[in-house]
Amino acid sequence: MSSATDKKNINLKLQVWRQKDGKSEGLFTTYDAQQVSPDDSFLEMLDGVNEKIIKNGGQPIAFDHDCREGICGSCGFMIDGNAHGPQKGTTVCQLHMRNFKDGQTIVLEPFRAKAFPIIKDLYVDRTAFDRIIEAGGYISSNTGSAPDANAVPIPKPDADEAFLSAACIGCGACVASCKNASAALFTSAKITHLALLPQGKVEREQRALDMVAQMDIEGFGACTTTGACSAACPKEISLINIAKMNREYLRASILKKQEATGGDMA
Amino acid sequence: MSSNYKLDSKIPSGPIESKWTNHKFNIKLVNPANKRKYNVIVVGTGLAGASAAASLGELGYQVKAFCTHESPRRAHSVAAQGGINAAKNYQNDGDSVQRLFYDTIKGGDFRAREANVHRLAEVSVNIIDQAVAQGVPLAREYGGLLANRSFGGAQVSRTFYARGQTGQQLLLGAYSGMMRQVDSGNVQLMNLREMLDLVVVDGKARGIIARNLLTGEIESHEADAVILASGGYSNVFYLSTNAMACSVTANWKAHKRGAFFANPCYTQIHPTCIPVHGVNQSKLTLMSESLRNDGRVWVSKIKGDKRPPAQIPENERDYYLERIYPSFGNLAPRDVSSRQAKFLVDQGHGAMGEQAVYLDFENSIKRLGEDKIAERYGNLFQMYDKITGENPYKQPMRIYPAPHYTMGGLWVDYNLESTVPGLFVAGEANFSDHGANRLGASALMQGLADGYFVLPYTLGNYIANTKLEKVQITHDAFKEAASTVTKNTEKLLSIKGSKTVESFHKRLGLIMWNKCGMSRTREGLTEAISEIKKLRQEFHSEVLVPGASNGINLELEKANRVADFIELGELMCRDALVREESCGGHFREEHQVDGEAKRDDEKFCHAAAWEWKGSAEKEQVRHQEELKFENVKLATRSYK
Ligand SMILES: Cc1cc2nc3c(=O)[nH]c(=O)nc-3n(C[C@H](O)[C@H](O)[C@H](O)COP(=O)(O)OP(=O)(O)OC[C@H]3O[C@@H](n4cnc5c(N)ncnc54)[C@H](O)[C@@H]3O)c2cc1C
Ligand code: FES
User: Fold this and answer.
1) Structural domain range at position A145
2) Which of A179, B77, B351, B544 is the 20 to 30 A CA-CA neighbour of A202?
3) Which of B24, B78, B542 to mutate to probe the A interface, most A CBs <10 Å?
4) Vertex B592 angle, CA B270 and B527, to 5°
5) What is the tens place of the pLDDT at every residue in B63-87?
6) pTM for this structure?
7) ipTM
């Protein structure tokens, strides 16, 4: 077992996107990150750089973060063109400096997407995701009206699969990694999670139609089917969700049309 | 409010089993058409806040839900890993409302209010029903029914879970319920807003002042009632398992406006966290208590043993929890487990001479296979590996206690109403239910109980019984509060000293950890109080806050929070100093028998609630709520 003391600190150069606010022009600025411990997380390394900037009378680099344990979905920016950096299945707050080499130059940029306006530096606004959920990402069950939790058994494989889709943390890496800035992985994960469960079946069609419509309203692009989203996802949400969403959407559209024309639903 | 103010807990009369049922029947209702006319502010969108906002929205109230995050789903409830308790007795292992009630009272070392705890145990079962109805993917058995695991301080399996993501999944459930109310227009989302003051008009809570974290604008919001669900204050220790933005600020501002702060010294140090790795560390990561279902905790029997764990033979290992607490073993509650880890490390038994003990899965992997362990704890093992670079399937985890949860908080009565009428407090932000120590998997339960099942009744009762004249944000009370906030902000920016906010927070954290942490002494606390006083003065003359008040300014946000933590830290030490006993997480070295906490029920069988006296220079006044144990016999807490 290695202990923290026998690991060597490293020095890095950072090229960081600095942008005062949504309206201003941005540009890259270079900073030195010195004597970085390999046990530090990427954000702790940035904390160190910020402390120095502040002491020198400058404005610290703004980035969103909170839990620093890979679950709240607050953090996220591009590191050398990869959302959340080089390590698979990892948010930037969980990325540790032992993954970088002494003397390396690292480029930091915000997630770029029309639907994610830049607030400042590496900090972007992802509230479009909330509006997609608002459009139908729920099961309508008022507090107090629920039957006993074991009244409806759910096959374990369905429950497990629903969990895997529900594991999305809403960080936006999928959008940032997609050429078209599509939110298909995010939206499909929620549609799939709820469609798999008996409780979610009642609103299944309307949910798919409304959430997909909202995705378009927010200005997200169409799915490219290249899978860049899933590859960048820190929770490794599977592409199958998107296939399922397409099916859910098609199914809902057909059923709605039949309903509208009075056709047979069978 | 005068110093001889009498705390009234408003516990309903009658036998404990029927108090809540009777109370619900006796309270006044607001007619459905009238609910629409009332505005409620909810500060916080964690489990407590989101569940309250969703439920009140469904009832028809006009709700404004505030959070500091860009999305309400990012509240720190999201990080809860292990599980949520409920007295469902699905395992047929002898669980019941009565047993959950008893375990929680005992777990809290007889420092919680019986009536509240009983209600919590009663509604626990409805929470699971509600969560499942919302589509929360809780773990299931092959037959399709819900699975359970065990948590510390209980001998039954009553903990429901969603792998290591119980918090995120429950929060997404409550959040989706709230977003549905946003969709139907009953809840208005006020994200990226930080409450910086409470507005009191004619003695009642009538609104808040918030800073728009994007624009920097100071906003006034009026309401008929205010709910604080702003979480806990473990970040007073700087390093804790809380998220970076968790703060006491909402609570502290309300405290300064008349809400008493109860039992601030009751903090929980969680036994199983990843140890500190270095000076730049910004937070500590929890390894869920659920791991102790299959992991065994040990240290070397030899002092100063620097050998790697694999080289320490079985007979030289001390499985100290199994040795000291044979009936609970590795599932001994948090306070006692943490304390034993500290004792052993202080005596020189730390893992490879460092501040850590082992949590070992070797036996379980042999017994159950790596696959089974991966299914149960896969994501936790992966997280451990990412942070430490070590593979816990191959070598034991190294863990150490870390600040995690705060049992103290704003004092509330049975209705969850604070000493300011119309100000309700829910979730970790209040002091109710957990006494001096919280059992694992009980915070999620309490937050959701408060939001889904208690506040919709008790807040309605307040509104139905109270004459609430319309107030406008042009009222003098709003103007005064808004100008206080503006002045404080400008002042912080104008100091332009040479020391960063972070450096003050770190120094405060060290004082708190060393002198008001896992073990406390009269001497240490007295020193801490004077050190914190000095730190406060230094902060207000030498802090460097860059930038301006308009626009996004993350350092300014931090500075506001740290200023409040410094004041809170002093109160915590004072509370710990006055409480001349040991109970739960509050361990005073002067009061122990054989290394276990020694309560003093004669003198301290009460909750302490502190009243702010107008400025940080003035000593706060301590009030007492006597605790009566009529259903569980006051006894020495033992897990041996
Ligand atoms: C790592 C970790 C693991 C845990 N695991 C478990 C577990 O397995 N089981 C269990 O029962 N408990 C667990 N707990 C404890 C439990 O998660 C928390 O006690 C609980 O979730 C707190 O919920 P809350 O709603 O009270 O507060 P939070 O979820 O912390 O929410 C606070 C909210 O208030 C907002 N807020 C705060 N201040 C302001 C302000 N001034 N203005 C506006 N908004 C504000 C925040 O933005 C946020 O929305 C764990 C805790 C941690 C830290
Ligand atoms: S900060 Fe929460 S996921 Fe990274």
Assistant:
1) 126-260
2) B77
3) B78
4) 75
5) 999 999 999 999 999 999 989 999 9
6) 0.97
7) 0.96
